[in-house]
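Appendix B. One record, verbatim.
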Amino acid sequence: MQDSLTSELESDIIFGRYAPGSRIIEDRVMEHYSAKRHAIRNAFAILEARGLLVRHPNRGVEVVDFTPDEVDALYDVRIVLETAASERTALPCSPDVLARLKDIASRHEKAVKINDVQAVYWLNLEFHEVQYSCCDNPLLAELISNHARVAQPIRVVKYDDTEHMKTIVAQHLAILSALSGTSNQTLVDAVRAHLPASAEAYRTLYNRRFGVRTAKS
């Protein structure tokens, strides 16, 4: 129950049922998900650890709300972590891993075509978790997974951009191709190309929302 509840609540945060910066009321969440208080608090704790919720004294739990500069900083960290993992990945990856990635990429592409955004979200997470399981440093892979989850509300701002999503599908295939080869630099380049667009889109959306432009550091 708790795993299912956490996933459902996470998805609702990612897709905007709970807006960035909004307070989440325990009693309302209990009613909406037909869940007990201890289960809600457990889900809150997990999502707080994942960076999607933040707890403020005397204000309760709120959905994290990034500024564009914080997003840029997050993506800088992701580039460092993900390129480092790519450099440490033994190539080519095992046939079993490659077969699994091909299956996930195929299902992700189909979800993009029918605009099943929930499936797109979860399949994207699964693709990259399997991708970084090939890295020989499990702690590094865990850090990447944690930062990727934090970045999901940023990534989904481009889910309604058809051309962007076609690019994402092509980038997944480029990563898969690199994992099938022997060049770590090719993998690094494919990973680096996959990251920046969502952060740039978030900055544009943020500036429209608040009517201000936060200067890059």
